[in-house]
Amino acid sequence: MNQVEVCLTPELIGQFDLTNKIVVAVDIFRATSCMVTGMAHGVKSIHPVGSVEECLELGLKKGMITAGERGGKKLEEFTIGNSPYEYMRDEFQDKSIVVTTTNGTRTILASLAADQILIGAFLNLRSVANYLSTSRKDVVIHCAGWKGTVNIEDTLFAGALIEEIKASHKRKGDPSLIAHQLYRANAHDLMEIAKESSHAQRLATFGIGKDIEFCMNQSLYSVLPEFKDGKLEAI
Amino acid sequence: MNQVEVCLTPELIGQFDLTNKIVVAVDIFRATSCMVTGMAHGVKSIHPVGSVEECLELGLKKGMITAGERGGKKLEEFTIGNSPYEYMRDEFQDKSIVVTTTNGTRTILASLAADQILIGAFLNLRSVANYLSTSRKDVVIHCAGWKGTVNIEDTLFAGALIEEIKASHKRKGDPSLIAHQLYRANAHDLMEIAKESSHAQRLATFGIGKDIEFCMNQSLYSVLPEFKDGKLEAI
């Protein structure tokens, strides 16, 4: 049986050996939820970059749509911000998006030692689980957290994914047990605890409560984005 | 109302501002459980130090009893190891113990920026809670974890303490919510989940399952050790 571990924040990723493993990068509010939504709505590729400057440069040079946020807010110079609803536009079909976000991008770029990097969200939970179940690979669920801290929504997702793959993957380490327990204790109403999270409360002050609700939808999309050669494409 | 936060591992303590706060240092398996047991049985003071060399030197120079472990095992040169049962000896009454452990000592020494450092364990849960409830200070519960990773038993204790002080202290941050939820989901049988922890399973291979059971006893002792000027003394 393969194993599944949970890294609760990128600050702790150095404690994990990613060699030959699949990393599932997750930033529920809202980077990976946006990525999954965009790919599900026909975006061709998404290019996560570390800085605002890189983002603007790629946008200009390669005609990509610029997207992202700093501190939860859209940047003036970008075409779109970090709301999944913005990723649904018809005119983005077959286009490429270059994106930079506070936590999500960092998480993906800190997972490069892995054999494969998948993008997970509640929105594509079943697809991620199905892929992992037949992968015969050990898994590390890499939670983005918030500015290096541990957060509720990514930990909840880790627990939900552990539940989905429990027939093929055994929990390893205490964080995976904590995540699994947190999910099971709240499975009857994930929105209730998600709303209690610091991140949801922070975002609510920007008037984007509907983003939070959307991001908590389970398996709305079947798309499975993979990060490879600097960009996300659907597997 | 004051606030209570949880730092899940010393690796993340840099994310917390400890100024004017009370830190509760916790390493359930087994450093802080041993300290509480020793003080409850009449030990005069306990001196946590970072290295084996310092421990042996203080033992020799000041006639202190040497205690501690590396990797969960007693060191040959020390008088006692890291089992609470070893801290109960009659001949230690009014004696001083110098101790070094893998995780517990590090946690205390990484909390020096706080206004006050208390030593918490399930064994003195009620005493810690009573003190905090009347303190009018914000609190950070600092979990030792294991080699920098997050563990179940210290997180459970954090949740139990949050539950005890909820009338005077409001949770702040997602880790405090995670810890509180974990405790509430398992309050009916803490031993069951404690036995599932990596640490308990690691220790079980050394044949010290009875230590685990002992450390999970709630409020067996009323002693409250404080770390001040390099040593622990009962408040």
What does this structure look like?
2 copies of one chain form a homodimer. Chain A is α/β, with parallel strands linked by helices and about 240 residues long. The first copy, chain A, has one domain: putative 2-phosphosulfolactate phosphatase. Helix content of chain A is about 35%, strand content about 20%. The first copy, chain A, has helices spanning about 30-40, 50-60, 105-110, 125-135, 150-165, 175-185, 190-195, 200-205, 210-215, and strands at about 1-5, 20-25, 45-50, 65-70, 75, 95-100, 115-120, 140-145, 170, 225-230, 230-235. In chain A, helix 4 (about 125-135) packs across helix 5 (about 150-165). Chains A and B meet through helix 6 of A and helix 6 of B.
Spatial sequence of strands, sheet with the most strands of chain A: 9-1-8-2-7-10-11
Order of helices and strands of chain A: EEHEHEEEHEHEHEHHHHEE
Query: How does the major sheet of chain A shape up?
Result: 7 strands, mixed
Number of E-type strands of chain A: 11
Span of the ends, CA to CA of chain A: 24 Å
Oligomer: homodimer
* Helix/strand/pairing category of chain A: alpha/beta
Output the CATH class name of chain A. Alpha Beta
Q: Give start-end ranges of low-pLDDT stretches of chain A.
A: none
Protein chains sharing the most extensive interface:
A-B, 28 and 28 residues
- Indicate how many domains the architecture of chain A comprises: 1
CATH topology of chain A: putative 2-phosphosulfolactate phosphatase
- Our estimate of the beta-strand percent of chain A is 15-25%
Number of helices of chain A: 9
Helix content of chain A: 25-40%
pLDDT averaged over residues of chain A: 94
Estimate the global geometry of chain A from the Cα principal axes.
globular
So, the CATH homologous superfamily of chain A?
Answer: ComB-like
Radius of gyration of chain A: 16 Å
